[in-house]
Write a structure and sequence with these properties.
Two copies of one chain form a homodimer. By secondary structure, chain A is α/β, with parallel strands linked by helices. Chain A is built from nine helices and ten strands. Chain A has two domains: 124 residues, 2-Layer Sandwich (Nucleotidyltransferase, domain 5), CATH 3.30.420.40; 147 residues, ATPase, nucleotide binding domain (Nucleotidyltransferase, domain 5, 2-Layer Sandwich). In chain A, helix 3 crosses helix 9 and helix 6 packs across helix 7. The two termini of chain A are 13 Å apart. At the A-B interface, strand 7 and helix 6 of A face strand 7 and helix 6 of B. Bound molecules: adenosine-5'-diphosphate (2 copies) and zinc ion (ZN) (2 copies). The site of one zinc ion (ZN) has 7 residues of chain A, from helix 4.
C-alpha cells in the first residue's frame, strides 16, 4: 500500500509517495505555475503509482475547509495570481477514485510532528516562518479551527523600540506578525536576503522579540504542550534568541517547563514534517 | 434535584442553587475574605439544600486543572493575599459527598453562554473585562487548554499612538492586555473610575483599539463562531467602538459574517453566565 502527499506551496509543490511506516519512497518537486499546469503535474505524478490508496493535500491558502460549503476544497481568495477560486480538491477527486484529505500546509506539518512524537503530544502548535508566516494547532489529534483555518500570521504585536520606523510588509496589515518577520522582511529592513544577514546583526534580536511574542500569544491563548518553529528563517541559534525574549516577556507568569523542549525546531528534518503528516493523514483517511 | 454553583471571584463569591432547567432557586453573595472563612461560608450555604446533587466551581486563578497533579483543585500562585496554595476543591470534597466540577471563572461563563445557545455554537470565546481580564474558550463543548488554563489576558498588543506613555498596570508585564484595559486602568489613566468616564472620552477609543486586538488575536488564532464580552467595563456602546476598530484592523482579511453577531454582550443578563454555566456543568458531571 502506498500513500500520497501533496505539499502545495505558493512557490513550489512537493509530491511524494510513502509506505505505511511513512517512509518516503519517491518524491518530486516542481514550481507552482498556473493551477491547470501545476495540478496536472501532480496528477501525472501520482498516476504512476498503481498501489496508491489515499492522498493527503496540505495546501497554501486561504483554503475552504468547511465540508458543507460549496467551495469546500478550493483555494479561495489568495493574492497569488491565477490561483483565486481554484477547485484543487475537486480536480484531484476527478482524477483519483480514492480518499483524499484536504488541509492547510501548516496543519500538515503540525500533524507530521505529532505522529513523529508517536502521538504522545496532546497539543502542539507548528509555526512556519518562511515566505509567509502561518501556524497550525493540533489538540488531541484534531486540528484547531472549526469554521475555517486560523490565520495567526496576522496578529498584531508590541513593536520593538528599535524598529518603530519599519512599517512592515503585509499587504493587508503592514505590521502584523507576518509583515514584521517573514523572510522577505530582511530584504526590506537591510537590503540583504536573510541568508546573508549574520546572526550577530541586531535585526535578529528584533526578529526574536516578535517571534517570541507569537510563541507567547500561543502559550497564553492555547497553552499547547509544545511550539515547533519551521521554515527557512528558523535555526537553532535563532530559537535561542527567541527563548531569551520569551522568558523576558513571560516574566515567570506561566511555567511551561524547560524552554528547550517547549520551543523547538521540527523533529522531522529538512522541512519534511508536512510530508510525514500527509502520509499519516492519508492513512487515517483510509480507516 | 438541585444543582450548585460557586462563582469564586477575587472580590466576591456568588453561590447559587438551581433546578434542572438551570433556573436560579436561591442565591447568595459574600465578600472574598480569608480562604478558611470564605470557603466555610460556601459550605454552610450549600448544607441547607438536602436535594443538592452536584456542585460546579468556577474560580478566579491561577488554578490547577491537571487532574493528575498533586495540586489539582488548588488556587495556586495568586497575587491575592492569603489565597496562594489553597486547596479549594479538596475543602469542598471534604464537606460534600457528591460530584464537584472544577474550572476557571471564564470557562464557567463560556459554558453558560454555550448552553444558553442550546449548544448550537460549536466554538465560543468568552472574555471578561472587569477587575482583571481573562477568557475561556469552548470548542465542541470542551474547554480549550489541555495542560492548564490559558491566560490570554496577558498577551502583548500594538500600542495606540495616543497611549504610548501609559506604562500599563499589570504587575507582571506592565502593558499586556490586562495592564492596558482592565477596569482599574481608568483610574490610572484619568484619575476617575471607569463608571464616571463618559463614552465620549477618547480613552474609550484607546480601550476599544486594544479590546479589538484581543478579539482579532482570538479570531486569527482560534476562529471561534462567536466572541462574547462580559465584565463591568463592557457595554453595547463600547462594543460598537470595538467592532469599528476590529474592522479597521482586520481589513477584510477574514470574513466572520455580521460583526453584530460575532462580537456580542453575554446572552445571560447581569453577569449571570457563570451561574448558568455552573448548573450545566454540575449536571453534566452527574451524567
Ligand atoms: N538562513 C536564513 N536566514 C534568514 N532567512 C532565510 C534563511 N534561509 C531562507 N530564508 C528566507 O526564508 C524564506 C523562504 O522560506 P522557506 O520556508 O524556505 O520557503 P516557503 O515559505 O516559500 O515554503 C525566504 O524569504 C528566504 O530569504
Ligand atoms: N460602566 C463602567 N465603565 C467602565 N468601567 C466600569 C464600569 N462599571 C464597572 N467598571 C469597572 O469594572 C471593574 C469591575 O468589574 P466587574 O466585572 O464588575 O467585577 P470583577 O471583575 O471584580 O468580577 C471595576 O474596575 C470598575 O471600576
Ligand atoms: Zn497581515
Ligand atoms: Zn500581564
Amino acid at each position: 500500500m502506498l500513500l500520497g502527499s501533496i505539499e502545495a506551496g505558493g512557490t513550489k509543490f512537493v509530491c511524494a509517495v510513502g509506505d505505511e511506516n511513512f517512509q518516503v519512497i519517491n518524491r518530486i518537486e516542481f514550481k507552482t505555475t498556473t493551477p491547470a499546469e501545476t495540478l496536472q503535474k501532480a496528477v501525472d505524478y501520482f498516476k504512476q503509482f498503481t498501489e496508491l490508496k489515499a492522498i493527503s493535500i496540505s495546501s497554501f491558502g486561504p483554503i475552504e475547509i468547511i465540508k458543507t460549503s460549496a467551495k469546500y476544497g478550493y483555494i479561495t481568495d489568495t493574492p497569488k495570481i491565477n490561483w483565486s477560486n481554484t477547485d484543487f480538491l475537486g480536480f484531484m477527486k476527478n482524477n483519483f477514485n480514492m480518499p483524499i484529505l484536504w488541509t492547510t500546509d501548516v496543519n500538515g506539518s503540525a500533524y507530521g510532528e505529532y505522529v513523529t512524537a508517536n502521538e504522545k503530544i496532546k497539543s502542539l502548535t507548528y509555526y512556519t516562518i518562511g515566505t509567509g508566516v502561518g501556524a497550525g494547532t493540533l489538540i488531541n489529534g484534531k486540528f484547531l479551527g472549526e469554521t475555517g483555518h486560523p490565520e495567526i500570521g496576522h496578529i498584531r504585536l508590541k513593536r520593538h523600540p528599535d524598529d518603530l520606523n519599519f512599517p512592515g510588509i503585509c499587504p493587508y496589515h503592514g505590521d502584523c506578525l507576518e509583515g514584521l518577520v517573514c523572510g522577505p522582511t530582511f530584504q526590506a529592513r537591510t537590503g540583504h536576503r536573510g541568508e546573508d544577514v549574520p546572526l550577530s546583526d541586531h535585526v535578529w534580536d528584533i526578529m526574536a522579540y516578535y517571534v517570541a511574542q507569537a510563541a507567547l500569544q500561543t502559550t497564553l491563548s492555547i497553552l499547547p504542550e509544545k511550539i515547533v518553529f519551521g521554515g527557512g528563517v528558523v535555526s537553532e541559534q535563532f530559537l535561542d534568541k527567541v527563548r531569551y525574549e520569551y522568558n523576558q516577556l513571560m516574566n515567570d507568569y506561566i511555567d511551561v517547563g524547560d524552554l528547550e523542549n517547549y520551543i523547538t525546531m521540527p523533529t522531522v528534518k529538512n522541512n519534511g514534517s508536512a510530508t510525514v503528516g500527509n502520509f499519516a493523514l492519508a492513512r487515517r483517511k483510509l480507516e
